[in-house]
Design brief:
2 domains, four-stranded antiparallel sheet, 222 residues, Rossmann fold, binds ribulose-5-phosphate, seven-stranded mixed sheet, Alpha-Beta Plaits
């Protein structure tokens, strides 16, 4: 559903603020990346005295969390988390996602895997019947870029495009696959992940979201 930027931002804010209702006293919160998550972090700042800290999925989110005086902790020290809150580029009716528009997909997928409950916060434009209209991000180690691109073309028929100039927080590069209609997200996630040189595929289907909050007046909790 096309939205104008102002109402889309308002929907993101409403989704981010609604997610605060899932935060419980003493929790360490997994925090994703992006403009919707930025609203969540700003809302989290208002309850920061109730939480133990946050595990961040990107340098960008770490800066914003620290700017609010929220302690950023290492996943290696916290162990598994009760709650992870993150945005998405696309979301289907099974809560399977495309993520990585902000190039933070690897740490996002690690934190999602480590979390009991993954809450995805989106504006209505992110809801789709079939994943793939948004180009699917794939993080690759730099020396494997052209090999992985050729394999992607053969395997999927989609068109891989190098996100030139973007270096991830892990020092890697991003290929965005255009022209997909992903009818088997779990299978595609598995197959693409097996290509040597692929670090992370931006499909979150094997481990989808548990709860989706669609921003609006009022927000919808799915
Ligand atoms: C970053 C992501 C983001 O969650 C996704 O790109 C959505 O971003 P936004 O909330 O700005 O629309 O996956 O890697």
């Amino acid at each position: 559903m096309p939205q104008n930027p102002a109402s889309q931002n308002e929907a993101k804010r409403l989704a981010g603020e609604k997610a605060i209702e899932f935060v419980e006293d003493g929790m360490v919160i997994g925090v994703g990346t992006g403009s919707t998550v930025a609203y969540f972090i700003d809302a989290l700042a208002r309850v920061k005295d109730r939480i133990a800290g946050a595990v961040s999925s990107s340098e960008q989110s770490t800066q914003r969390l620290r700017g609010h005086g929220i302690e950023v902790m290492e996943l290696n020290h916290t162990g598994n988390l009760a709650l992870y809150v993150d945005g998405a580029d696309e979301c289907d009716s099974y809560k399977r996602l495309i993520k990585g528009g902000g190039a933070a997909l690897t740490r996002e997928k690690v934190i999602a895997e480590a979390s009991k409950t993954f809450i995805c916060i989106i504006d209505p434009a992110k809801q789709v019947p079939v994943l793939g209209e948004f180009p699917l991000p794939v993080e690759v180690i730099p020396m494997a870029r052209s090999l992985v691109a050729r394999e992607i073309l053969t395997m999927t028929g989609g068109q891989p495009v190098w996100r030139d100039g973007v270096v991830t927080d892990n020092g890697n590069w991003i290929l965005d696959i255009h022209g997909l209609a992903i009818t088997d997200p779990v299978g595609m996630e598995r197959e693409l992940s097996l290509i040597p040189g692929v670090v992370t595929v931006g499909l979150f289907a094997r481990r989808p979201a548990d709860v989706v909050i669609v921003g609006g007046e009022p927000p919808r909790v799915l």
